[in-house]
Amino acid sequence: MTSAWELLLPAASAPARARGRALQEALRDAVRSGRLAAGTRLPSSRDLAADLGVSRGLVTEAYEQLTAEGYLRSGRGAGTWVGDAVRTARPRARDLAPRSCGDLADFVPGTPDLSLFPRSAWAAAQRRVLADLPHESLGYPDPRGLPRLRTALAELLARRRGVVADPERIVVLSGVAQATALLASVLHARGTRTAGVEDPGSPQHCALYASAGVGTVPLPLDDEGLALGPLHASGVRVVVTTPAHQFPTGIGYSARRRAELLAWARSVDGLVLEDDYDGDFRYDRAPVGALQGLDPERVAYTGSVSKSLAPGLRLGWLLVPDWLADDVVERKRTTDLGHPALDQALFARFVERGDYDRQLRVCQRAYRERRDALVAALAEHFPGARVSGIAAGLHAIATLPERYGPEEHFLARVTEGGVAVRSLTAYGHGGAVGDPAAGTSAAGDQMAGAPAAGGSTAAAPAAAAPAAGGPTASKEVRLVLGYAHLTPGRIRTGLARMAQAV
Questions:
Q1: Helix count and strand count (H, E) for the chain
Q2: What is the Cα 11 distance to its own chain's centre?
Q3: Is this prediction's pTM over 0.70?
Q4: 85, 242, 262, 466: most buried by Cβ count inside 10 Å?
Q5: Contact assessment for residue 226 and residue 257, using Cβ atoms and an 8 Å cutoff
Q6: DSSP collapsed to 3 states, 387-450
Q7: pLDDT digits (tens, 9 = 90+) for 131-178
Q8: Which residues share a beta bridge with 425?
Q9: Cβ count near 81 (within 10 Å)
Q10: Rounded CA gap, 363 and 482, in Å?
């Protein structure tokens, strides 16, 4: 009723002799344009006439005329409604979420198997939380997050990832992307203008720092992790790392390199941002503990449920050093006034009852089976291929023999064959040095579905960075193969199709 009244106000102010015609035309336009959608009930002639300040007869005449024309329909005692005879182009909301392009096989990394989401357990937890949550908990939350969730996360992270977790220094947020952007904004306010990023590495890090006005310096890797010489020579005091299972090479930082990285941070009064969002997925032995546990004042630790549950939940955490905590919390408060309280309470219960640990075990079994299927299918369809980065994470590096190269020709043929795949060289950050505007790579379109990181490696030298970030020195083809979202059958079919295409 309110919308009809507002649409017709200009007609009601028309000169008296033209008022009836203006009212009819205004109603027609509203129906044609879709502003009055089919099935909308209009006010009674008496109510609309009173609202518009016109005679009831004027409204009745307009209703009768448009009913005769088919724009409206009415029945005795049933009111007046917008008819469905007029076919208007209703405005549509576009969906900009990343989607598969319809390829017959898709090995692009970064997506878990969303069919593994524990719908029944999640729904049960949601019902219980809704029943038990105090009314006051639905107000504006602590910007750090609900104390209940921060306590549960502190216990979880200490137990599973070996972090030094103080609930007072945990900030609950929407995921690793928000954690990185939030930290970049705080560091920029403190004078930071450049940050180091692994090269090759996840494209989201460059873009997120650029959004805060911080340039990125690409730092090469060797077979133990970030190369120390270029790191010292870069002059940066902040560096972003994925030490458990480097994305994309699959390198697991050695114990020596971890110690050297922390020694660098102390020597420059710097900070390491540890991105650890799939550090739980290690298949052949227990996960390596987080870097943060070795020096909580030099490492900011971030993770999320994007790979263990679903990225659509937009739920993660940031554990910050004490000297940064107040600034980060204040920036979080002014940014969004806190993460949704109901989501936090639900996940807290999910963790407390052991449902999250069970979910991790389900995912680990499924992803180990898929990794094994990938390795076996590569051996069958691409004899001589070397595979690395398979001890952990949700992707692997496959280095194919020279007979399949050069790489650009291989990728072109595979694409024509309906297979989506990324090469290792696509994740290089060349040209990003010190320039916020250059903080994206050739893989920047994966920003919304950020590629995974975490775990260890079986053959790191094959994926070391000197050959990964720039032009290839040989005809070898190096592929980053995501497998978590594919069943073993689809993995085998996809690799068979890839082999057929080349």
A1: 15, 17
A2: 48
A3: yes
A4: 242
A5: yes
A6: EECCCECCEEEEEECHHHCCHHHHHHHHHHCCEECEEHHHHCCCCCECCHHHCCCCCHHHCCCC
A7: 999 999 899 999 999 999 999 999 999 999 999 999 999 999 999 999
A8: none
A9: 17
A10: 15
